[in-house]
Amino acid sequence: MDQSTHQDKIRNFSIIAHIDHGKSTLADRILQLTETVAARDMRDQLLDSMDLERERGITIKAQAVRVRWKGHELNLIDTPGHVDFTYEVSRSLQACEGALLVVDAAQGIEAQTLANAYLAIENNLEIVPVVNKIDLPQADPDGAAAEVAELIGEDADRVLRISAKTGEGVADVLDALVERIAPPAGDPDAPPRALIFDSSYDQYRGVVAFVRVVDGKFHRREQLRAMALGTIFEAQEIGFMSPVMRPVEALTAGEVGYVITGLKDVSELRVGDTLTSQKRPATAPLPGYKDVKPMVFAGLFPTDSDEYPELRDALEKLKLNDAALFYEPETSQALGFGFRCGFLGLLHMEIVRERLEREFDLDLLVTAPNVAYRVRPMNGEWTEVHTPSDLPDAFDEVEEPYIKASIIVPKEFVGTVMELNNDRRGRFDHMEYLSEQRVHLVYELPLAEIVLDYYDQLKSRTRGYASFDYDVTGFRPGSLVRVDVLVGGEPVDALSLIVHRDFAYERGKALVEKLREEIPRQMFDVAIQAAIGARVIARETVKARRKDVLAKCYGGDITRKRKLIEKQKAGKKRMKQVGGVEVPQEAFLAVLNLNEGARK
Amino acid sequence: MTSAGEGARHLYVHLPFCAHRCGYCDFVTAVGRHDEHGRYVDALLRELEVESSLLAPRLDTIFVGGGTPTFTEPAALERLLAALPEAEEVTVESNPETVTPELARLLSRNRVNRVSIGAQTFHMHLLDVLERAAGREDVRRSVYVLRDAGLDNISLDLIYGIPGQSPSDLERDLAETLALEPEHVSAYELEAKPGTRFTHAHGAELERQAESMESYFELVVSTLTGAGFRWYETANFCRTGTAPGGPDLRARHNLAYWLGRDYLGVGVGAVSTIESRRRRNTPGLARYVRALERRERPPREVEELTADVVAAERVMLGLRLDEPLSVVGVERALDANELERLERLGLAELREETLALTTRGRFLGGGVTAALLA
């Protein structure tokens, strides 16, 4: 088969879908139908290799699988299914010519469907719309098909109706992929260029890059260069996944595969970068590379301070597979030694935390998350602040990240969602009806307003019907102040927060009230204050205990009494001492539940 | 502290029998079983005989506790009391409804010179909550009966913080108590111990009342000290003689515990501490009796007290008293930083070689002690 004919037979595609709309099941079914995986080896949801992904029904790391169908080579490039990984999704989509847009026949379009569909449209992908789960009793295939057709501007007849679970219609999907999606267009004779759309770390072979070859040809043992970062390495092995690694001598324009780099640090190779040959380099990289920066930060502290070295080792190991994870040592006078970690978003944070606790068996105290701030101190240079207590007392300007939020709700909840967004300093952008029943609302919101409990609030106020997605749009100036908390007259660094000036009083008050409940009564009055600079804006007092005595030692049973005292003493050891006040660790999480109290 | 070889000067004797096990009680008790009283006393006397080498030739105090010692069959009780060695203070615990003129005479003729009456409260609705059989009149009557028999050192036990007890209920209890002119009053806050039937039934109610009952301890202390009682131990009060050199009415037996003296305990579940070794007899009545019937020592747990533990206990117990604690020998048990902090907070005072709690420190004695111990 000559090169151009071969290239004509290639189809590169992704599956985009909302969580639980059946992406992984469809992928499994495709692997089965194309006999890529023998039926006896079939494990449900083969592509989601990490336990956590399987459990949460989401895909964290993208992978690519090559399958054969009626003389064609189909590359399925899996995409992460969540908002935090938008950049990774966009790189995966850039590696494709088409996308299967999967929508649940019972649920219809959700916020993530929209976000990813728009991403696909922006990347000029041919969209093959699919309505899945038509076997469900509550399915409304016509309704869902109409919504999808409306969204992508196609005829509803072109929407495929399938059940990935039963396999009904899956062969038609494969046929449609071959028919509708264009073969890759790259120039096989040009200097080689390949887009890195994902990477992972293998402890024996180092960083593995997953690539889409756009132009030219890549050979085993060739010296390669990552154009944005300048990293140079030898391709130790080149191949494709089907579904296990299958080495080949070369990958050519249009193909999708992997490159084993031997690099020991994932940060040397970034998703979105372009690989080229060192001998015959391309002049320009592929477009779209971005340095993804963490936007959400939280302190991670071991509950038992002796576990600090274990936490450090665990973060090092996670970082190997997760270039987006950021961490640096942090010392809190209240919580001791830990790390300030940066995440792409809330889900990313949740995943990292769960992996630390589950895979590394660590007991963690995670502080309330906050966003990154940009601040220009008096007569100083712009810097980024990741910890609220680091915001200087005086500054010229401060900026906070904003998002564009996309919310889809049944129309009866529009009012309540608008109210929530207004409370959260949201600015209405626009709204549209997706169908007679469902409305798509677009708001601009400060990221800080959603990191705590926005999603929970949204879900509870819409009885679970709302779906939500967002995209960080950039930094904007804000009227922000740092609110400090003083316990027994001493500031507690871990409790500082940065809030909009208009909310400072309300938040400060709610926080000290919450702390009053959390801090046990002591042998003296404990003042809890919220302050902006030297100005106290709220104050509560934990009144001193009036009695604390043990009953008699009956018949000389002193041991029993001594054990009670020892127990009392051990209980105190578990608390953190702040200004001579014993503060339970839970109190440091008070900020997490603030909004409930303040806004109801 | 008793020096080695001299023997313990304090003896505790446990009589576990009760007419009814009160819901809040978690002591070693046995309900009914009249036929067993005699056998039990035989076992007790045998244990006393076996352990007599541990006792000093002359005893300071004997305390007969329970259970309800005065619920024991009179013949068995008399046999026991008559067989006990001589001591300067011999206390017997009683429940008001068991105190008859016959019993009072029985105690009196057997050298008992101090009786502690478990009054608990004078309110019927609260006695019901505590599942106590006695009524208000029983307490009054028992005091007179004992006085008639010549017993002139009487202690009344009160419990406060009973579910449903209002501040005025407590004031009334204290007034009734004072009206009976006891030499000594013990007032303990009700402890709802986890796992007891009582906690199961009343735990939630107690939780609800916790805040309003916080002032009860202060009320007890201020009322009794206001009436001329000495608050000599966290939960214990005694009348002070109006004339100088009058009798010291503190409970000398309990004082021995608080001062870290050696004591021998005999009976089921009884605890002894002798020469830094603490042992606790089996709480199983049948096992206890059977062992002694076989002329064996009853099964017991033994705990060797290290010097650190001894020092910690000295601090823990000593700080319950109104007299300053000598810190000589117990420095190792004290956390110097915490001591300094507690002094700053006005809860403790270190003077030369003694440590004392301030009045507020005594109200917070448990927390203060937990903080102080290194």
Short overview:
Helices cover about 25% and strands about 35% of the residues of chain A. With about 600 residues, chain A is of the alpha+beta class.
Tell me roughly what share of residues is in helical segments of chain A. 25-40%
| Largest interface between protein chains, with number of residues from each side | A-B, 25 and 46 residues
- Percent of residues of chain B in beta strands? 15-25%
Biggest sheet, spatial arrangement of strands of chain B:
9-10-8-7-6-5-4-1-11
Q: According to CATH, what is the class of the largest domain in chain A?
A: Alpha Beta
Low-pLDDT residue spans of chain B? none
Low-confidence stretches of chain A: 52-62, 596-600
Tertiary shape of chain A: globular
Structural category of chain B is: alpha/beta
Number of strands of chain A: 34
How would a textbook summarize the main sheet of chain A? Answer: 8 strands, antiparallel
Number of domains of chain B: 2
CATH level 3 topology of the largest domain in chain A: Rossmann fold
Q: Report how far the terminal alpha carbons of chain A are from each other.
A: 69 Å
CATH architecture title of the largest domain in chain A: 3-Layer(aba) Sandwich
Distance between the termini of chain B: 22 Å
Structural class of chain A: alpha+beta
Number of helical elements of chain B? 14
Explain how this protein is built.
The complex is a heterodimer of chains A (600) and B (374). Chain A is of the alpha+beta class and 600 residues long. Chain A has 5 domains: 3-180, Rossmann fold, CATH 3.40.50; 193-277, Translation factors (Elongation Factor Tu (Ef-tu), domain 3); 296-367, Alpha-Beta Plaits, CATH 3.30.70.870; 375-478, Alpha-Beta Plaits; 481-599, Alpha-Beta Plaits, CATH 3.30.70.2570. In chain A, 25% of the residues lie in helices and 33% in strands. Chain A is built from 14 helices and 34 strands. In chain A, the strands form 7 sheets. Chain A has an 8-stranded antiparallel sheet with strand order 11-10-16-7-8-15-12-13. In chain A, strands 2-3-1-4-5-6 form a 6-stranded mixed sheet, with helices on both faces. In chain A, strands 22, 23, 24, 25, 26 and 27 form a 6-stranded antiparallel sheet that branches. In chain A, a hairpin with a 4-residue loop joins strand 25 and strand 26. The longest helix of chain A is centred in the C-terminal third of the chain and has 16 residues, at 558-573. Chain A is globular, with a radius of gyration of 27 Å. Chain A starts with a helix and ends with a helix. Chain B has 374 residues and is of the alpha/beta class. Chain B folds into 2 domains: 10-258, Alpha-Beta Horseshoe (pyruvate-formate lyase- activating enzyme); 307-372, Orthogonal Bundle (Arc Repressor Mutant, subunit A). Chain B has helices spanning 34-51, 74-83, 101-109, 124-130, 136-148, 167-179, 197-209, 216-226, 252-258, 285-293, 307-318, 336-344, 359-363, 365-372, and strands at residues 10-15, 17-18, 30-31, 59-66, 87-94, 114-120, 154-160, 184-189, 229-233, 236-239, 264-266, 271-274, 277-281, 300-304, 325-326, 348-351, 354-357. Classes of the chains: A alpha+beta (600), B alpha/beta (374). Chain A binds chain B through residues 523-524, 545-559, 561-562, 564-565, 568-569, 572, 580, and chain B through 12, 14, 27, 63, 65, 186, 188-189, 191, 214-215, 217-218, 234-235, 254, 257, 263, 265, 269-273, 278, 280, 303, 309, 312-313, 316-317, 341-342, 345, 347, 363-371, 373.
